[in-house]
Amino acid sequence: MLILGIESSCDETAAAVSEISGNGALRLLSDRVASQIAIHRLYGGVVPEIAGRAHAEAICRVTEEALSEAGVTMKDIDAVGVTNTPGLIGALLVGVNFAKGLAFAHGKPLVPVNHIKAHIAANYYEYPDLKPPFLALVVSGGHTSLIHVKSHVDFETVGRTRDDAAGEAFDKIGRVMGLSYPCGAEMDRLASLGDPSAYKFPLAAIPDGTLDFSFSGMKTAVLNTINSMNQKGVSFKTEDIAASFTHSFTASIVKKLHEAVIRTGEKTVVIAGGVSANSHLRNAVGEMCDKMGLRFCLPPRALCGDNGAMIAAQAYYEYMAGNTADTTLNAEA
Asked: How far, in Å, CA of 38 to CA of 25, rounded?
């Protein structure tokens, strides 16, 4: 079975073809991504209107490249999966309408895919034996969620950020430090060189008995510290700021993740999303899992960011569960 996955929820236009064997194993035949980083770097973040226009310019080319790289045509494709929620509404609409037209023109089933579910599904390429139930942490520029994955299509969000996402905090703090957007990779590098105890920043783990996060206060504390030192003419090391912030970030995640494991009783922890590429997060969650005797699964860094491969993977499970759509499918922000 061949699934074409199309992704356009934010600032990457992506398409991929995945082959699913009789035993359900996924094999990636192609994965093409057109990044908009160079465009949005000029503004220090994603500009929704520009993102939508860039998707419209790239989506035909990217899809053709994915099919060509896989050595197939639309006649060979069994279903078309597309991200329809959540994301930037203008960006989503480009992918959804393109996928609807493509599927309708070729008489192929159309499969709507939730972007968060798809991030988690990226792990199935790396771990063919990974099967629900398990606990998943999704950390990205727009999302920070703890999800109890009960089946391939049945997900329960048990914890989430109430305001800013972790990735957003990394980018805004990095920008004030003078780093180029996106700031995640450079913040990760700097954190490895700095002193994590140089500054004490508040945790994002809300102490109210829930599994929720709040990164707004942590972000504000870091920004206030930087602005105060700048106003006073006090020099500081960006490495120490990055290391101290990253320490508070990982401690917050591990605290709530530990509680979630105890509440759900799951023995497998999966992480996903763009921020799951952060080496400090990977190490911290890995150490927690080792201490608790849990299986720890994490996607290859190439599949941490937005991509078509993860859409194709989740589309397969949605298709097998009968979750298809017609041409009335719409995007949801």
From this structure: 36
Q: Which of 10, 3, 47, 59 is nearest to 274 (CA)?
A: 10
At which residue do the structure tokens 């073809």 appear?
17
Query: For residue 121, what pLDDT is reported?
Result: 98
Q: Which two tokens stand for residue 143?
A: 């999302």
The answer to whether 315 and 15 have CB atoms below 8 angstroms apart is: no
Which tokens is 141 given? 């520029």
- CATH superfamily, with its number, for domain 132-301: ATPase, nucleotide binding domain (3.30.420.40)
Instruction: Give 209-226 pLDDT, tens digit per residue.
Output: 999 999 999 999 999 999
Q: Among candidates 134, 138, 158, which has minimal Cα distance to 211?
A: 158
Q: Rounded to the nearest 5°, which phi and psi values hold at 190?
A: -65, -40
At the fourth CATH level, the homologous superfamily of domain 2-122+307-320 is ATPase, nucleotide binding domain (3.30.420.40)
**pLDDT (mean) for 52-60:** 98
Average the pLDDT over 105-127 and give the result. 98
**Residues 90, 199: Cα–Cα separation, whole Å:** 40
Residue 247 corresponds to which amino acid? H
Q: What phi and psi, each to the nearest 5 degrees, are found at residue 8?
A: -155, 40
CB 117 within 8 A of CB 148: no
Torsion of CA 76, 99, 156, 303, to 10 degrees: 70
pLDDT, one tens digit per residue, over 243-252 is 999 999 999 9
- Token pair, residue 19, equals 């082959």
Percentage of the chain lying above the pLDDT 90 cut: 98
Kindly state the tokens that stand for 64.
């053709």
Do you know the residue count of the chain?
Answer: 333
pTM: 0.96
Query: What one-character DSSP code corresponds to residue 88?
Result: -
Dist. CA 217–CA 302, nearest whole Å: 31
DSSP assignment letter at 277: G
Domain extents for the chain?
2-122+307-320, 132-301
